Records
---
Amino acid sequence: MTAPMITGPMIEAAALAVDTIDDTIAAPPADTPPADATSTDARPRGPKGDRRERSARRPKKDVDGWVLLDKPIGMTSTQAVGAVKWLFQAKKAGHAGTLDPLASGCLPIALGEATKTVPFVMDSRKVYRFTVRWGIETDTDDSEGQPVAQSEVRPARDAILALLPGFRGEIEQVPPAFSALKINGERAYDLARDGIAVELAARTVIIHRLDLVDMPDADHAVFEAECGKGTYVRSLARDFGRQLGTHGHIVALRRSVVGTFAEEELVPLDTLRAMHEANGETPPFAALRPVEIGLDSLPSLRVSPADAARLARGQSIILRGRDAPIIEGPVAITAGGRLVALGDAEGAEIFPRRIFHSAPAA
């Protein structure tokens, strides 16, 4: 028998079946009709007529892959997912990390089988560029809210630079009152909109990088941050202002990177719509990326078709051979050039956690 080999990011191994195990990783689907970027109108764009009749004429399809959307300002993440789902006529969709309506930039949208990889994208690092307006704090910590405090103080560059080290690394952060976090089963933003005082506990977040990029005038400063899961940029603006003896809120925000998804890969919603119309209102498949890019951060284990079939039945496999790699943690499993399973490696044994049913590429 040929011994297993490591070739770049790929690990080749022969395997032997053992036990069955359960399927545990899931991603929340979204099923929302599209909306214009400047409106909260959730009606699909298209020919006039009854909405249910249009839906009946557009049967949903099994569409699997990622759309790296450049979300426009003025659209919620839920509306963006609904718009993309409608364009692709997809049965299932979800996104990997909410962006506020005020924000633009990288909103990875998973369709079909790609929703199984959403947790790995959501846990990855993200890069934001944001502009803080000094002298005013709002109830939402951004320009969409109402002012709650004001100050005539404007911080100097040296004071800002001296402040930043205290916000790098592992810090405690209180999320904004207007956030999607739940309090006794209710969304914090729903309580805040109803005039109920919202007090959220501080949470530990990680800021890997934080830089002052520009100070175009005394009222504004531009920053760039690379941070981990759960970080609220709006909270950074609020806390910057308070610690600098003034106040602050976000007036511009753009997410340029999510994990391995970079800004130059993003596709604007208008481009997707134009592709859809140019192709006779067929889905813009040219913008669809493979399911496996959601697992780019994981080691990839290549197995034989027989072993892939065992994994598909829920059976674990054992890596064999004198040079079989010993790995730990999540692993992406491929066979015949396509993703077949997401598993957990425990030494020489691989346990399937999610099975992928995408059809092989044509």
---
Amino acid sequence: MKKIINSNYFYAFIALCCSLWLFFFVSTPGVGSTRDSNQSNTSTVTKRATLTVPLQLQADVDKYYITGYPENVKVTIEGPSALVTATKNTQNFNLYLNLKDLSIGQHRVQIKESGLNSELTYSIKPKYVTVNIQRRETKKFAVDVDYNKESLATGYEAGKTEVSPDTVTVTGAASEIEKIARVIVKPILPKGIKSTFDQEVLVQALDKNGKTVNVTLDPQTVHVKIPITIQSKQVSINLKQQGDSNNSNLSLESDVKNIRVFGTQSQIDAINSSVDIPVDVSDVTGNTKKSIDLGDVLGNKVAFTDPETISVSINTGSSSSSTNNSSSNSANTNNSNNNSNSTNNSSSTNNDSTEDNNNSEQ
């Protein structure tokens, strides 16, 4: 036994056993391998995500005008969680329509992808689209302005409309360009507007029936300015008696001598430098004042006036007549007194003369 233990073969056998034990210990899963196992499990978990992606065209867009396709489509991807998340964040792939070999007309085309990782599965919605390929044409059009003039406040007028820019570039299928009857803007003016309209307005291309034509406009909006003003001038007023009255001594007076009238250019041109203001005196029996509404008096000759009303004093002359009668009576009384005094004086003179004659005879 001692020989066996001291033998080189024994030590070699022991070394072999230890080596085998260490090998199996290291190879057996344990605490140290848990983390690697978890990472392996995580990488195999699947995930799904739906993305909205721009749809690209592979076509000669300088020569052809293409319509009918959506700007964006949805794609659902599925695969390893980490890969799905990375793809969702970067979107480093494309969805496209290959139209290079298609002729003019309508075509049903499948949407294709490029750049997606091969470990991902995907589905695109919609899978097919119908496109219309037409010969491309570009043309310039002047911009017309169409608005409701009845929106202006009474008496106000619109001046020359300014449009900037006054022309737009229209691009589309040649067949659509031919349909265009006019390119217009339709500004919507607030009801009763009294000040200049100044806004950006959407441009529209319309056919002869007033329907929108499917084309691209550049620019899509233009700046529209519509000056809105009202004309005015100052005129004097002439108070005119209106209606029958028994008093022939009536007089009309007002502190207001001049007014300003407002209206359209044609209304202002038709107004003279002075206007007659009729005052109804048919119901006047004594001194009084009346408020005259100038808008009612001038009617549709003007839009409005400043001031809108005036106060008119109507004098019947009754106070001055009483004064004159009193003065007349006073004068008559004085005349009577003077006549009486003259008679008395005459009588006294005659008496004195008689007395002198009698004395002379004696």
---
Amino acid sequence: EILFNLGPPPQFMLLLTGIPGQENVYLWISVPFCLMYIISIVGNSVILFIIKIDSSLHEPMYIFLSMLGVTDIGISIASIPTILGMYLFNCREISLNACFAQLFFIHSLQCIESSVLLLMAFDRYVAICNPLRYASILTLPIAAKMGLVCVLRGMAAMFPLPFLLKRFQYCRANVLSHSYCLHQEVMKMACLDITVNSIYGLFITLVTVGLDSLLILLSYVMILKTALTVASHAECLRALNTCVSHLCAILIFYTPEIGFLSMIHRFKKKALPQSEILLSYLHLLFPPVLNPIVYSIKTKEIRKRIMNIFKNYSTNRLQWGH
């Protein structure tokens, strides 16, 4: 019997998908994604720069805000390049290993962002409910350790995902329904039983994002209860006003995930495929874009320093002009 060595089998490639039926305007669709990418990177970088150079902002609240900014930059870098590659250059193919790496970073960073929002809720809880002990409870070393735990927790929770997927043989349709990789989509392309992956994915979601959202809700129930017991109405509003930026960040992060996406999956047969894809973009890409805008507008210290930067820049230009 003669055996012919034809080399290793071709690598299984996945195909990314854009917005169905809009192939003729992909170039124009790439424009808002380019703008979102620029706004996310520049906006979060400006906030990080301001917090770094201003020693008066070296407080737990702004340390957590810095972590949120770094996480948002990471999400943008992990997801938008493949989206732009598909819409701009029609680069639809992605290898399994690249897909595994992308889904690991996307899921890890989203888990870390959820944890950071929980830390920020805890910061507001201590500041409003126990203001006299705030400085002793939330010191900078403690805040740094809490942040490190959140990062390690997110990475440890998602670390098994690529290995759980790598053990499979893939033989089903290789077309993703998004222009980036997610664990719940890739595992459906496997030839073998995916029960372990499904159970682990659900378990991790419940003990990370699910638990974080419940603890954030509990924190704000306690904050509201404390604020309503304050004798002065003005003091109550002042206390709650310090939470506005964080509440906006919570709504931006959790509303698409818990509300819109669950509705789309519930009425999946009736919903247009474009709706599901647009909502997935909303869920993934809006927090990195809107968070720096919200904090620049609603946080007085950040807004004041950004205005000073523009003011100094304008003054210097006038001086150079003369």
